[in-house]
Write a structure and sequence with these properties.
single chain; 287 residues; alpha/beta; Metallo-beta-lactamase, Chain A; 6-stranded mixed sheet; 32% helix; globular; binds zinc ion; hydrolase activity; Metallo-B-lactamas
Length: 287
C-alpha cells in the first residue's frame, strides 16, 4: 500500500491495475473501498491493514460490477456499503457477476460476494456524508454513469472515482447488464455527462487534489485531476459525433468518424469503445 494523502492509502492489484483504497481515521478505524482482485491480494490487504494496527470498520463498493464487490473473511464481518440502486442491480444479475469473478479470480467466498448494506437515501447528483462505522469526513456522490447506483467517495482531498476518470479506460457507458441493451438506461451519454459535472462540483467544493480511478494511475495535483475531466469530456464528444455518422460515411463530410484517444490503443478498451459506438448508433437509428 502507498499513501496518497493523509489517511488515504492505495493498493493496486495485478489485474487491470485495479485500485483498492483504504481510508484510516486517527483511531485506526479503516474504510476499505473496492477490495480486489484475487483472493490472495484481498487477504494480503487484510494482513497489511492488521500489520499497521488498523481495524477494518466498514467497506464501500463504488458500483455493482463483480470486481468491485469482492471481500474476504480476513477483512472482518463489517457493513459493506453501496447504494440501494447498486444493490438492486447486482441482485438482478448476481449469477453472471459471480461467474465472471470465478473465471477471472477463482477462489473467492460465494457467501461474501456482493453481500452489501444499503446506504441511506442519497439522491442522484447530491453528496451525502457516510455515517459511522465509516471514518469521519467521508462523503459520497451518487450518479448514473457507467453502472446503476455508482458512487464516488470524497475524503481528505481525494476523489475515489470508481470506474471513471481513468488514464487507461475511456468512459464506459452503462449499456445494460452484460450488454443487454433492453435494460440499458434511456440516456447513458447524458447520465455520464451529468455525473462528470457532479464530480467536478465535488472536486471544487472539497478542494480535491488527488484522484484515484478504479483502474489506472492515480492523478496527483489539481491540473492532473482537471485533465482527467477534460479527456473524458473530449472522448464523449467525439463518441457522440462518430455515432451520428453512418459507419461507412460520406466523402467530404467534415465531422470526424474516428475517435482520437490514446486510451483506445489497448485492445480491450478498443473493443468496449466499438460496442458502445454501435449501441449509440442503434439508439439513433431505432435498431
Ligand atoms: Zn465497472
Amino acid at each position: 500500500m502507498r499513501q496518497v494523502a493523509a489517511g488515504v492509502w492505495v493498493a493496486t492489484a495485478e489485474i487491470w491495475t485495479s485500485n483498492t483504497v483504504v481510508v484510516v481515521d486517527d483511531d485506526g478505524a479503516a474504510l476499505v473501498v473496492d477490495p480486489g482482485i484475487t483472493p490472495t491480494e484481498v487477504d494480503g490487504l487484510a494482513a497489511a491493514v492488521a500489520a499497521r494496527g488498523w481495524r477494518v470498520a466498514a467497506g464501500l463498493a463504488t458500483h455493482p460490477h463483480w470486481d468491485h464487490v469482492l471481500w474476504s473473511a480476513a477483512l472482518g464481518d463489517v457493513p459493506r456499503f453501496a447504494t440501494p440502486t447498486a444493490i438492486a442491480a447486482l441482485a438482478g444479475d448476481v449469477e453472471r457477476g459471480w461467474q465472471e469473478a470465478s473465471s477471472a479470480a477463482p477462489g473467492h467466498d460465494r457467501a461474501l460476494f456482493g453481500a452489501l448494506t444499503p446506504l441511506g437515501s442519497a439522491p442522484v447528483g447530491a453528496d451525502v456524508p457516510l455515517v459511522p462505522p465509516a471514518p469521519r469526513g467521508c462523503r459520497v456522490v451518487v450518479h448514473e454513469a457507467h453502472a446503476p447506483g455508482h458512487l464516488a467517495l470524497v475524503t481528505r482531498g481525494v476523489l475515489v472515482a470508481g470506474d471513471m476518470l481513468s488514464d487507461q479506460e475511456v468512459p464506459l457507458l452503462d449499456v445494460g447488464p452484460g450488454g443487454d441493451r433492453a435494460r440499458a438506461p434511456l440516456d447513458p451519454l447524458g447520465g455520464y455527462r451529468r455525473a462528470l459535472a457532479a464530480l467536478e462540483d465535488a472536486v471544487a467544493r472539497y478542494d480535491v487534489a488527488v484522484l484515484v480511478p478504479g483502474h489506472g494511475a492515480v492523478a496527483v495535483g489539481r491540473d492532473a485531476v482537471a485533465a482527467r475531466f477534460t479527456a473524458d469530456r473530449a472522448y464523449l464528444h467525439a463518441l457522440e459525433q462518430a455515432a451520428a455518422q453512418p459507419p461507412s460515411g460520406h466523402a467530404g463530410c467534415d465531422v470526424p468518424r474516428t475517435v482520437p484517444d490514446e486510451r483506445l490503443a489497448d485492445r480491450w478498451v478498443a473493443g468496449e469503445h466499438a460496442a458502445q459506438l454501435d449501441f449509440l448508433r442503434a439508439r439513433l437509428t431505432g435498431r
